Amino acid sequence: MAIPVSMAMATTPTDSVSRVWSMSSLKSALPSPSSFRLPSSSSRRPVTLRLPISSPSLPSFSGLSPVNPLLSIGLPDWQSFENGFKIVDGGGRVYAMRHGRRVPKLNRPPDQRKALLRGLTTQLLKHGRIKTTRARASAMRKFVDKMITLAKDGSLHKRRQALGFIYEKQIVHALFAEVPDRYGERNGGYTRIIRTLPRRGDNAPMAYIELV
Amino acid sequence: MAASVDPLVVGRVIGDVLDMFIPTANMSVYFGPKHITNGCEIKPSTALNPPKVNISGHSDELYTLVMTDPDAPSPSEPNMREWVHWIVVDIPGGTNPSKGQEILPYMEPRPPVGIHRYILVLFRQNSPVGLMVQQPPSRANFSTRMFAGHLDLGLPVATVYFNAQKEPASRRR
C-alpha cells in the first residue's frame, strides 16, 4: 500500500513550503481521521498560504514509518522522516502567547539592532527581494513600510529623514522618484514575506522578503 | 559599494546595455550650456532638442551614434528595455551628427517613473552604411548589442550617460 502514497506525494505542487504533509497522511492511518483538529502552526503568519488540512482521499498506508499514535496528536512541530520533506517552520519552540512583547530584539544591543535594520532595509530597497532569517524579515517590515511612506509624501523634510536612515543616497533618490507611481494606490503592506527552507549551517528558519 | 571606479560600470551601463570596451574616441555632448558627464542629472526640459555632439577623429572615418534608455518604463521594472531615442549613422569624424544620416529622429527624454539613465553610444563604422539599415519597427525593446552586431560595428568607441527624472509638478506639499 506504500505505492499509491508515493504517487500521491509526487503530485504535491512545488511550493512544498509549510505543507503539513505528514499530518494528513498519518491521519488516514489512524482510526478516526475526521475527528482530528490539528492546530495549524502557520495561522499566525500574515502570509496566506492555504494548507489543505484533512484530505480524506489518501489511502491508508502501513509500514512506511513506525508511527506512535500518541506522537501525532496535537504536536505542531513534529518532523516527518520520510522522503526529505521538511516542515518549514524551523523547529523552534513555539509559545502560545506574545503578551507585552513590543519590540523584536534580534539578540543584539540597541545600536547594533538599529544598524542591522537600517542595513537590511537598504538592501531590500536596492535589490527588491532578499533572503534572511524569519525574525529579521518580520522585524524589518515596519521600517521598510516607514521608508516607503516617507517617499510617498515626497517633501524635502521627508527626504532628509529618509537620507538619515538609508545608507545609500542613490537609493533614497530612486525611491522618491519611483514610489508615488508604484505604490500610489496601495495603502500599507508594501512587503511580502515567504518562508523557505532552513539554513544549513545552523538550521535557522529563513524567509524571503520582497517588495510587493 | 563600487567594484570599479569606472562610472560606466558603477552606473551599470556596461552590463545592461554595453559590453566592456576601451574608449578610443572622444565625444563631448552639450545640452545647451550644460556639458554632459557620466551620471549627471539633466532635466527633461533642457533636453527637448538634440544635443550638440562633437566627435573627434579623422574626417574619413564614419561614426554611428545611438541614444537609448535602458530603464523604460521604470528602472525597477524595465519591461521595454531599451527605448531608443536617436540613431544617426555615417557621421564623418571631427563633426557633429547633423552631418550624418538620421535613421531615427530624436525624441526627448520623457521618464514616466523613476530615475532613468540615457546613454549616448558612439561606434566607429568600418564602411558606409547608407541605406543598409532602416528605422526599427518600434522604439521599445531595442537592443544596442544586436544593432551593433547587425551593422558589424564592434565595440563602442565612446559612451556617456546622464540621468533624468520626471520633473515634479508645480504643486509641492
TrEMBL record, chain B:
Pfam families: PBP. Transmembrane segments: none annotated. It comes from the Eukaryota. InterPro entries: PEBP, PEBP-like_sf, PEBP_euk, Phosphatidylethanolamine-bd_CS. One of its GO terms (biological process) is response to abscisic acid. Belongs to the phosphatidylethanolamine-binding protein family. This is MFT-like protein. It comes from Capsella rubella. The lineage of its organism: Eukaryota, Viridiplantae, Streptophyta, Embryophyta, Tracheophyta.
